[in-house]
Structures are given as C-alpha cells and as structure tokens.
C-alpha cells in the first residue's frame, strides 16, 4: 500500500489539529511499513491498535474543540466520525480474530482521512481560526 505524503492542502491552519493529523499520517505509514516489511503479526497488531486509538482520541479532541467554538455543523461532523469509528473498530476486531485485514485498514484510513481532512475539516478551519484570534491568541489551541 502506498505511503501517505503530507501536502500543504492538508493544513487546516490550526496548529494543534495539523500536528495531530500529521501524527495520524505517521501512524498510517508505520502500519504500511509493518505490513510490507518483516514485522510479525504481533508487531502489526500493535501498530494497528495504535493508529486506531490515536485516530479515535483525535476525533474526540476535535469534537470537543468544535463544541467550544459552537460550530454549527458539529452534529454532522460527529456523525461522520462515528460512522468511520465503527468501521475501523470492526477492522480492529476482524484482525484480532485472525483475519488478514491490516493492509485494507491502512488503505481505508488513508483514503477516508485524507478526504475528510481536505473536505470536512477544512470547512471548520475558518471558524476555529477566527475563534482562536478572538479568544485565545496565544492560547489553548496552539500546540
Ligand atoms: Fe474531523
């Protein structure tokens, strides 16, 4: 599976979010490396759990941030996170049950997240940046 390369069009302009997104990209690439390299099943399992956990934690963080700024489309955004969370938890479970789904999960994460960041996350970027300038110029959402 091809590696993910960070490109500027993935930036939201919100440092803490961009750093988390970059970290997810790193994890996806680590999963690619494990799947394609000589990693044992146990090692793949570990990276797979890490990428899923980190992604879910990131979603929760993002939703909390959108709640603080009173983002009007939060419910829709949350639903999109929830649907995807269910999909990746299913993969995690399938893998734990012995199915060979690591590379499919990596590709799903890559495709879904890149699309989500470019589209859905970009939609809130402007509002969160304005909020940051008004409420926390050096503050909480910097990383
Ligand atoms: Fe999101």
From TrEMBL:
Pfam families: Hemerythrin (PF01814). Residues 12-125 form the Hemerythrin-like domain. It comes from the Bacteria. PROSITE patterns: HEMERYTHRINS (PS00550). InterPro entries: Haemerythrin_Fe_BS, Hemerythrin, Hemerythrin-like, Hemerythrin-like_sf, Hemerythrin_metal-bd. The keyword Transferase does not apply. One of its GO terms (molecular function) is oxygen carrier activity. It comes from Thioalkalivibrio halophilus. Belongs to the hemerythrin family. Keywords: Iron, Metal-binding, Oxygen transport, Transport. This is Hemerythrin-like domain-containing protein.
